[in-house]
């Protein structure tokens, strides 16, 4: 974390530095802290698909599926072939199924709609 903090200090206008610290927060399961840094990364570079994807991971763990879906939709728009998009969309869909929200759940699909 010290290296990530130093990166942000040295480059306070560097979206990648905030994204990297955000992913470190995710590894530490500090999802709210990660969201703060990922919000800053997105503010600095609004087309940063990886930051939206990482924020979707946080929203998933905080069970805010509407925000998770919004971030995944943004990733899909910016970079349709993003490496983790299908997996994360399926996780969100499976979550809806477990919660009994059948209208959002498509069994065995990679579609969360």
Describe it for me?
There is one protein chain. This protein is mainly alpha-helical and 113 residues long. The protein is 68% helix and 0% strand. The chain has helices at 2-10, 15-27, 31-44, 49-61, 65-78, 85-98. It has a single domain (2-104), classed as Alpha Horseshoe (Serine Threonine Protein Phosphatase 5, Tetratricopeptide repeat), CATH 1.25.40.
Concise structural overview:
The chain is mainly α and 113 residues long. It is 68% helix and 0% strand. The protein has a single domain (2-104), classed as Tetratricopeptide repeat domain (Serine Threonine Protein Phosphatase 5, Tetratricopeptide repeat), CATH 1.25.40.10.
Residue share in helix? 55-70%
CATH class descriptor name: Mainly Alpha
Query: Which ranges are low-confidence, i.e. pLDDT below 50, for 5 or more consecutive residues?
Result: 102-113
Which percent band covers the strand fraction?
A: under 5%
Q: How far is the N terminus from the C terminus? A: 36 Å
Assign an overall shape.
globular
Provide mean pLDDT, rounded: 81
CATH architecture: Alpha Horseshoe
CATH T-level topology: Serine Threonine Protein Phosphatase 5, Tetratricopeptide repeat
The helix count comes to: 6
Under CATH, the homologous superfamily reads: Tetratricopeptide repeat domain
Number of strands: 0
Q: Structural class, from secondary structure content?
A: mainly alpha
| SSE succession | HHHHHH
How big is the Rg? 15 Å
Number of domains: 1
The largest β sheet comes out as:
none
């Amino acid at each position: 974390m010290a290296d990530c903090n130093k990166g942000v200090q040295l480059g306070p206008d560097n979206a990648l530095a905030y994204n990297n610290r955000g992913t470190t927060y995710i590894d530490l399961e500090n999802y709210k802290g990660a969201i703060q840094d990922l919000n800053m990364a997105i503010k600095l570079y609004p087309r940063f698909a990886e930051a939206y994807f990482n924020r979707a991971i946080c929203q998933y763990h905080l069970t805010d599926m509407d925000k998770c879906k919004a971030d995944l939709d943004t990733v899909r728009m910016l970079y349709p072939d993003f490496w983790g998009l299908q997996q994360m969309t399926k996780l969100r869909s499976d979550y809806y199924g477990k919660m009994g929200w059948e209208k959002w759940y498509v069994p065995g699909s990679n579609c969360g709609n």
